[in-house]
Design a protein that fits this description.
By secondary structure, the chain is mainly α. It contains 8 helices and no strands. The two termini are 24 Å apart.
Length: 176
């Protein structure tokens, strides 16, 4: 019973932290900590919980965003992309836990951000009827994507190793 309560509390903590950090950085274009929190929810609690935390966190943030709710395809792309990032956190735990984890975390931050940006940009093009001009849409958002990728590379590489060190204390049941 205590294990179930502990896991529910950890899940709720990750969801609330992701949403709160999303709101904290909402005015800063393409700099965010949501993907880091969701990735590490999977890292700490396993791929299934990471996926669920990604769905719940981004679902809440997307629908409660003070900037407004995006078009449905974009909202679905945001929510599903973050779910995949949470899943990836659990699946990549063993790979990241090496001696040069900061490099692997930087690569992971880049890959997660690239996946998120491509998915949401394609959804935006689809929503606006510009799918035939996808390359133009991608080019138009390139500066924002680069800023997003660079910021997540730095955040994942700088903060990630410290988070991975505390993983056994957060969830000792999760395999190393």
């Amino acid at each position: 019973m205590l294990t179930l309560i502990r896991e529910l509390v950890l899940c709720a903590t990750f969801v609330s932290l992701a949403v709160a950090l999303g709101f904290a950085f909402v005015q800063v274009p393409n700099v965010e900590l949501v993907s880091l929190v969701i990735f590490f929810s999977g890292y700490f609690l396993g791929p299934r919980r990471g996926l669920l935390i990604g769905l719940l966190s981004m679902g809440l943030f997307t629908t409660l965003n003070p900037m407004g709710i995006p078009m449905v395809p974009v909202a679905m792309a945001q929510i599903c992309s973050m779910a995949v990032i949470g899943l990836a956190g659990g699946l990549l735990r063993t790979w990241i836990s090496g001696t040069i984890s900061w490099i692997r975390l930087a690569i992971t931050g880049l890959a997660c951000t690239l996946f998120y940006d491509l998915t949401t940009t394609v959804a935006m093009a689809l929503s606006l009827g510009l799918i035939s001009k996808l390359l133009s849409v991608l080019a138009a958002g390139l500066a924002f994507c680069i800023l997003h990728m660079v910021s997540n590379i730095v955040v994942f590489a700088a903060v990630g190793p410290f988070l991975s060190m505390i993983a056994p204390r957060v969830n000792p049941a999760q395999p190393q």
